[in-house]
Amino acid sequence: MSADPADGDVLTAAVRTADGTGYAAYNERADGSVAPFYVVYADSDRSERYGFICGACGSLAVGMDPMGRLDCEECANSRKASQWDAAYL
User: How far is the C-alpha of 72 from the C-alpha of 58, rounded, in Å?
Assistant: First the structure.
């Protein structure tokens, strides 16, 4: 994962996705247990969110549950839930 300054925005880099090309926003991150997760957009204008990329292994196979927990399917990188439902207590 690296941003090419010749492409313009050094905070956004093109990444290969299953649907074609996505754009990783390196200034939009969520802390993980091993490395940060970065937001990936479907377009270079950052108007349509695609998902997340793992900062540890570079995988786009990152799952997010309704409570905001992030888990990389390729490595042990994860983020605890940012929300929770206290109704079960």
Answer: 10
